[in-house]
Write a structure and sequence with these properties.
mainly alpha, 10 helices, elongated
């Protein structure tokens, strides 16, 4: 079942390479990876546009099917800009031109089914503290949160590969802690090490987290794009609450 998940998986060189592979029909796994990584920001956008949970699920299903069936992925050009922008423009156009006309056929017709975890989506949507944001600001915020989730997943996988899974669980809470709020003495006790060693471990984890996050962002941008500008945009989106 394809759903938003934090299960471990292989990561391609770029997210645009997934688009290219899926558009060329070279890999069903490419479409699955795209959907798994990015369906929730689009789902949240659709919900904020006023659609019910059921309609948002149907629309998300249909949209990703249309990406393949009508060759929309073939129109995506990494040199033109951001994957974030391509997907939101595509879903907006789909909602305006395709969804209303085809909704009845979709619900009763035989089409490729791309399952999404609506129970998870609705629980996440309901728990969002920025519930009053307009649709496009919601999309940007959830896009940033998705990139953070992907970053955390990769970081966890690296620790598992290095037989450091236990230490990761002890250290991950430090990643989002405010400056000066980390209790290194408590971490040292949990890890059975010295406070100095705990400080080094936290520093290395944060440094690697930042590096992976930049990589995840760069994978959604054209070559030579201004990563710093996208970092600032996403930081603002994460801080957005009303």
């Amino acid at each position: 079942m394809l759903a938003y998940t934090t299960s471990r998986r292989e990561f391609p060189h770029t997210r645009w390479s997934l688009v290219q592979a899926a558009s060329a029909g070279q890999s069903a796994a490419a479409l699955e990876e795209l959907c798994s990584a990015y369906w929730y920001p689009l789902y949240a956008y659709v919900r904020r546009c006023g659609y019910s949970a059921h309609d948002a699920q149907d629309l998300a299903q249909a949209f990703f099917c249309e990406l393949l069936e009508k060759g929309w992925l073939g129109m995506a050009d990494r040199d033109r800009g951001k994957l974030r922008t391509f997907l939101i423009v595509a879903v907006r156009n789909f909602m305006a031109k395709e969804w209303r006309r085809q909704s009845a056929q979709r619900r009763g017709g035989a089409r490729t089914h791309i399952p999404v975890d609506t129970v998870f989506a609705e629980s996440r949507y309901a728990a969002d503290p920025a519930a009053s944001l307009p649709a496009e600001r919601t999309y940007d915020r959830q896009w940033a949160l998705t990139l953070l989730d992907l970053t955390l997943e990769r970081l966890r996988a690296e620790h598992e590969d290095g037989s450091r899974a236990g230490s990761f669980e002890q250290l991950k809470g430090c990643l989002m802690a405010a400056r000066g709020a980390t209790d290194y003495a408590a971490i040292a006790r949990d890890l059975g090490t010295t406070e100095a060693t705990a400080r080094v471990a936290v520093h290395r984890l944060r440094k690697r987290f930042r590096a992976i996050y930049r990589e995840e962002i760069s994978r959604t941008l054209k070559d030579g794009a201004d990563i710093e500008a996208e970092l600032r945009h996403l930081a603002a989106a994460l801080a957005d609450s009303d």
